[in-house]
Amino acid sequence: MRQAFCNGLVQQAPLPEFVFLTGDLGFKALEPLRDAMGPRFINAGVSEQNMVSVAAGLARSGMRPWTYSIAPFLYARPFEQIRNDVCLHELPVILVGNGGGYGYGVMGSSHHALEDYGCLLTLPCMRAFIPAFDSDLAAIIPALMQCEGPVYLRLGLSEEPKGWVIPKYAPWRKLLDGGGSVLAVVGPLVGGILAALAELDEATRPEVWLVSELPLTNVPPAFLESIRRKPKLFVVEEHTAHGGFGQMLAHYLAAAGQPVHSFVHKHALGYVSGLYGSQKFHRAECGLDPASIIAAVSVQ
Amino acid sequence: MDGRLPASIAQAYATNLIQRAKLRLLEMHYRSKVGHIGGNLSALDILVSLYHFRLGPNDKFVLAKGHSAGALYVTLWTMGLLTDDDLGMFHGEGTRLSGHPPLRGIPEVVFATGSLGHGLGLAAGLALGKKLRGEPGRIFCLTSDGEWNEGSCWEALIFIVQQKLDNLTFIVDLNGMQGFGSTQEVANLDSLADKFRAFGLTTMEIDGHDVDSISSALASRQGPLAVVARTRKGCGVSFMENQMAWHYLPMSEEQYQQAVREVTECGKLSATA
Q: Is the CB of A19 less than 8 angstroms away from the CB of B132?
């Protein structure tokens, strides 16, 4: 997804207000952007707190700053700068966290982002974008260049199933019809799940929805209608339960007085065995891999 | 005003101005029964000098040591940018004038600060924004000395030097006292000026209670510039000077009256007296 991200930003490089700050990351990925941006591409060094404060100052001066780092270095370490300098002032600073969820795999827990959008969405005016596919960025990036407040963009690894036609980007997309339950997924892990579910009988497999923007707004009536009609609602995300999409959706439905027959939340569980491995390994430990999801939705 | 008035008149004007500001600051803190008066008194000469003699229409200021908001409010009052009624609401219910600079309601406050270690990075962003946009003007920032315990200050310092932000000047209110002890006892960074020079920054050391010194230092355009201003916590009130307690304590009526008498009778005290 980094290449798609870089390509999308290169197209925005001529905008004179656009300024890009990296926390000393982007080797073998962001060089085209660096070359296109000239002095508006700034390596702020390994100093995320200062990078976020500088971005707030830049935004206050009329620039449109994007900041970039490995996700936890950008949302966890400088959290107070995000809170005080960016969000409380409602400034249009874009925080780009690479490696959402267990994206950095065996690199270890310091590099994982399991509570990123949950933490950030507690802050005023913050919005989170979680693209699932590379092609989503072509729609998201120009929109973020016009945003009026702070945004967190969580990048992952696009897992687009082969031969699949991805529907045009939207905050909510129905990706698969099915006569079974309802499955709502956040993030790129939907790709692997989709590929596996597509092999199942349409009459019994779940209907799959993909959510790419939080907090929840404009929940599609068709999704709510499906919940009313179908026996179970499954929510899947590579994020902790606390502050995650599952809690947001449960809150939304409760506040709307919408009954849910059965609610199953599959989410990141941290480090189940205490061992490390690839993103695939950690997803499997949490029951977030396609096989575990199929097993879960198959239980009557 | 430099160059437009004879020095003696300018000095008299500044002395009267600061005395008036100091009395108003004391009254404001006394009536609202809040502390932080010590650090406000150490910063007041710097703020008044900056606003009256240096800050131009294209310039911006960030108060990194947000706990000196009272001194900033009084300075803005001397500029006619806040009213007596505004100051009367300091620390009150439904006020714009909170204990640290507010998010909105005062156009001259570019950033709400209060948590230490944010202001210099914010100022660096403003300075970089001006340079990228090709805009004239300078960015000024006032930090405390205890604030330099924060790692983010050093992050900002590295960035300012690396990015050659020559339109940025920051001042350190070096009063030698911090939250729970002297700066030497808590986390000795002496000498801050030497450390700034070691980072490659043009650095000046001045008497932070001498208007001419402050004004001259801030006139320098050899940026990025660090101005280490030696000050006294509680400056101008004998029983407050260099006393830890006045980082926190509100004044009793008796203490307030004594402070007013001292400021009224003595006028501005020189840091070197």
A: yes
Contact criterion met (CB < 8 Å) for B159 and A54:
yes
Cα A40 to Cα A44: distance, rounded to the nearest angstrom: 11
Per the structure block, which two tokens stand in for B265?
């009778």
pLDDT tens readout for residues A89-113: 999 999 999 999 999 999 999 999 9
Helix B151-162 to helix A48-60 angle (10° resolution) is 60
pTM for the full predicted model: 0.95
**pLDDT tens digits for range B82-140:** 999 999 999 999 999 999 999 999 999 999 999 999 999 999 999 999 999 999 999 99
If we measure between CA atoms, which residue out of B95, B118, B97, B96 comes closest to residue B25? B97
Q: Which residues of A touch B127 (CB under 8 A)?
A: 57
A172-298 is classed CATH 3.40.190.10? no
Taking the CA of residue B180 and the nearest CA in chain A, the distance in Å comes to 23
CB nearest to A57's CB, from B112, B123, B155:
B123
Residue of A nearest to B113 (CA): A84
Cα distance between residue B224 and residue B226, in whole Å: 7
Cβ contact A152:A126 at 8 Å: yes
Range of the domain at B222: 7-266
pLDDT tier at B74, thresholds 50, 70, 90: very high
Question: Residue B80 maps to which CATH number?
Answer: 3.40.50.970
Is B105 a domain residue? Answer: yes
For B12-24, what is each residue's pLDDT tens digit?
778 889 999 999 9
Provide CATH code, domain A2-155. Answer: 3.40.50.970
Out of A50, A57, A88, name the one closest to residue B126 (CB).
A57
* Chain B interface, Cβ < 8 Å to A: 103, 110-115, 117-118, 120-130, 132-133, 135, 151-152, 155-156, 158-159, 162-163
**ipTM of the complex, rounded to two decimals:** 0.95
